[in-house]
Amino acid sequence: MPLLICHAPTGGVGTTFLAAHLALGLAARGHDVTAIDFCHADALKLFFGLPPAQEVPAMGGAPGAGVIVDGVELLSGWSVAQNPNFLRVLSRPGESPFADDRIVVADISSADLLIKNSLLPHAALHLCTLMPRPASLAALTKVQPGTPAIELDRTAFVLNQADDTLKLSRHSQIFLRELFGDNLIATIRRDEAVNEALASFKSIAKHAPQSVVLPELTALAIAVEARCGLSATVELPQ
Ligand SMILES: Nc1ncnc2c1ncn2[C@@H]1O[C@H](COP(=O)(O)OP(=O)(O)OP(=O)(O)O)[C@@H](O)[C@H]1O
Ligand SMILES: [Mg+2]
């Protein structure tokens, strides 16, 4: 089962938010999913509605030892990623430390290029979050330095926090659609309910079931499924 890595060249764009919802969306479609938080900030759990004090077990323990939320197993990868042995295993082609019967969604901090570059060769897909902001778009050359972003065959882009009332956001969507075509696999609107849900220690689905982002996040999971040759394993409402 594939490793999906979530990493963007700039921070604060919604990578962790998308990693959580990609994991939840795939689990809702019947897949066995583990979400691993490789960030020191330990924020992935918040998007599952868990409080900051919640302990998340480190990866590498007994199978199924993670915290289970809405069908997703949640693990922390931060401490393991600091271990040189882990990076040594990743440096061997074909050798993966991840269970091969589950989809693994990895949330990686923008600054952590070591873990991103170590995981990338094992990944079926790299999901790169962009925001309709100059600093985010200007960093497109940094997605994989030395390779133009449009030539990256295992990278798909998501525009997050789009807002059609803002000219720059509308223009960014047009620009990215022209640049990436089908490699722009989703656009997610900005909705303050995302932050309100976090502040209430609730998932967005529970806090704001009418949020505009929920169907867009489902569409993202479906697009990733298609990109990775996966198909839903549960009967879903039409
Ligand atoms: N679509 C959205 N609508 C509204 N707020 C959003 C949306 N996506 C993300 N946010 C908010 O933006 C902030 C940053 O999101 P997130 O932590 O996922 O970004 P990140 O790229 O992982 O940041 P970091 O670099 O700190 O890891 C959070 O407060 C989150 O709630
Ligand atoms: Mg993050």
UniProtKB/TrEMBL annotation:
SUPFAM superfamilies documented for this protein: P-loop containing nucleoside triphosphate hydrolases
- Pfam families linked: CbiA
- InterPro entries on file: CobQ/CobB/MinD/ParA_Nub-bd_dom, P-loop_NTPase
Q: Quote the Gene3D superfamilies the UniProt record gives.
A: P-loop containing nucleotide triphosphate hydrolases
Residue intervals of the CobQ/CobB/MinD/ParA nucleotide binding domain:
8-202
Kindly list any coiled-coil regions of this protein.
none
Task: Provide the protein name.
Answer: Cellulose synthase operon protein YhjQ/BcsQ
